Amino acid sequence: MLATKNLLRRYGVMYALLLPGLLYFVIFKYVPMIYIAAAFKDYNVLKGLWESPWIGWQNFRTFFDGVYAGQILGNTLLISAYKLIFSFPAPIILALMLNSVTSNGFKRTIQTLTYLPHFLSWVVIYGLLVAFLAPGSGLVNQLLNTFGLERISFLTESDMIRSLIVTTDIWQSVGWGAIIYLASLAGIDPSLYEAARVDGAPRWRQLWHITLPGIRNVIILMLVLRLSAILDVGFDQIFIMLNPLNQENADVIETWVYRVGMQEGRIGLATAVGLFKSIIGFVLVLGANKIAKKFDGQIW
After folding, report:
1. Handedness of CA 38, 42, 44, 47 (dihedral sign)
2. Burial of 39 (0-12, 13-18, 19+ CB in 10 A)
3. Mean pLDDT, residues 81-94
4. 3 state DSSP class of 234
5. Which residues contact 268 (CB under 8 A, 6 or more apart)?
6. Where are the alpha helices (DSSP H) in 38-160?
7. What pLDDT does 299 receive?
8. What's the rounded Cα separation, in Å, for the pair 245 and 155?
9. Whole-angstrom Cα distance, residue 298 to residue 218?
10. What sign has the CA pseudo-torsion 286, 288, 294, 299?
11. What is the mean pLDDT of residues 127-139?
12. How far apart are the first and last CA of the chain?
């Protein structure tokens, strides 16, 4: 008890600063977890959570036996994999390229231009896509028509929607993500590069043996965080770009849960699918963390 009082007296200000963040997680993250029970109930809004009848695993069976379960899971995994393969390395590559630029003015200009899209909402970004890619009035299709080429329905073509999702995600997030890696690159000891140049090491050798090992910890940490949300493909982006013509290849778990839970009122079924997605993310975090420890020897 005395030790606790001493800690409170010594670090009272820090605990006070920590309190709002803790309250946020308790109120908005932990308290709502009570409603996980709805996944195992035939939830009725009028009866409430505790009065609704228990049905066990029926909601899970309803989803996995459904016609669209395979399609929705496949779309989610494919889009997540594409984003992991193409979107995750993009900020690293941009940071490495900017780190090699010697002109500070040019470097700041490129940084500003690349991270500005992060502040645009997906509604605005979709408006830009319509302006450029709309079948009739889009700038790209007008250029195609000028050269006598066939117009392309970029926004409604089912085979193109995944590429469009990944491309816009890279454009929107690459500059903002590069900030973290640029900060990590700034912490590498410059004397290491000087010693490498004295030994005659070319730039790619310096990159491979100094730069990448210098930011390895940050890359692993960001990868673990990315894997924790591997099934979160971006509800805002997918929802705003989804339409009946491209739904076959773009409908994912998050949009399906929204339709079933909010529009159809099947709260129990939507909660069950959301719980399944969260458990998969939790397992992936644990697995990625174990792999990270083997590569880096850190205990997180």
Report:
1. negative
2. buried
3. 92
4. coil
5. 38, 39, 40, 41, 42, 43, 52, 55, 59
6. 58-64, 69-82, 89-99, 104-115, 122-133, 139-146
7. 43
8. 9
9. 12
10. negative
11. 84
12. 29
pTM, two decimals, is 0.83
CA 266 to chain centre: 26
Model confidence at 1, pLDDT cuts 50, 70, 90, reads low
Write out the two tokens for 76: 């989610």
Which residues, including other chains, have CB under 8 Å from residue 134's CB and lie 6 or more apart? 141, 155
Both tokens of residue 286? 């644990």
Determine the pLDDT at residue 213: 87
Q: Which residue has the tokens 């932990």?
A: 30
Three-class SS of residue 36? helix
Total Cβ atoms within 10 A of residue 185: 18
* 8 A C-beta contact, residue 118 and residue 111: no
